[in-house]
Automatic annotation (TrEMBL):
InterPro entries: SNase_OB-fold_sf (IPR035437). Residues 1-20 have a biased composition (Basic residues). It comes from Rhizobium anhuiense. SUPFAM superfamilies: Staphylococcal nuclease. This is Nuclease. It comes from the Bacteria.
Length: 241
């Protein structure tokens, strides 16, 4: 009985220790909270003096962070990435067809050319009123060359409706006398007054063919009637007997 009581008494202090331990462990969190609260109050009261200290400690960290970031230069253009050029696809081979024969070229029908009649020479009239002389070695302006040829204002005129002998081409004395007489008579007709010249063909190097007349009477017809000329195309053997 005594041992049992002793054992029961000895166990009592152990319970007190456990209570002390449990009470001590429960006060620790409250102590930490209290210290934190006191520190917060002190920091709030002295915030102005604590803030510069915190800023100084944060500055090196900020600088280190800035140094770690690579600087980007604004003046350096961004790298351009060359795009790969698409490879053109090869066109499928075209099957060559057989060459087609050339199309027939239509031949235009040949139309007959209509004969256009040559225009008749207009009856251009010109009136002469200059004084004439015999042609010599100088320039021929207004002069008589032979019985059927004369120059008017530098143009050689051939009387178209008659043919008279030429002095330099006479085949006999009779033809030469007729040639001189025709030349003298033509000079007299031209100087007798105004006369009219009508074109009788195209001008040629041998002279411009004209029908010369006065008051409707041809000079060629007068010389033929006087025996000093003949019609164009007639034989000239009659001048030499």
């Amino acid at each position: 009985m005594a041992k049992t009581a002793t054992r029961g008494r000895r166990k009592a202090p152990a319970r007190g220790k456990s209570r002390a331990r449990s009470s001590g462990g429960g006060l620790l969190p409250w102590a930490v909270i209290g210290i934190a609260a006191i520190g917060g109050i002190v920091a709030h009261d002295n915030w102005k003096s604590i803030q510069p200290m915190l800023a100084r400690q944060a500055t090196p960290v900020t600088r280190e962070t800035a140094e770690l970031k690579p600087s980007v230069r604004k003046d350096v253009p961004a790298k351009q990435v060359a795009l790969a050029t698409p490879t053109p696809k090869a066109a499928p081979p075209v099957q060559q067809s057989q060459p087609l024969p050339p199309a027939a070229i239509p031949t235009p029908a040949i139309q007959p050319i209509k004969a256009v009649p040559s225009p008749a020479y207009p009856a251009v009239s010109e009136t002469g009123t200059v004084a004439f002389g015999y042609c010599g070695q100088g320039a021929h302006i207004n002069c008589v060359g032979d019985g059927g040829v004369f120059w008017y204002k530098g143009e050689k005129i051939v009387i178209a409706d008659m043919a008279s002998p030429v002095v330099d081409q006479a085949r006999c004395d009779g033809e030469r006398r007729v040639a001189f007489a025709a030349k003298s008579r033509l000079l007299a007709l031209l100087n007798a007054g105004p006369f009219t010249m009508n074109a009788a063909g195209k001008a040629e190097p041998s002279g411009a063919p004209r029908v010369v007349s006065r008051d409707g009477r041809s000079f060629g017809a007068q010389l033929i009637n006087e025996g000093l000329a003949r019609k164009p195309g007639a034989a000239g053997a009659a001048w030499c007997a």
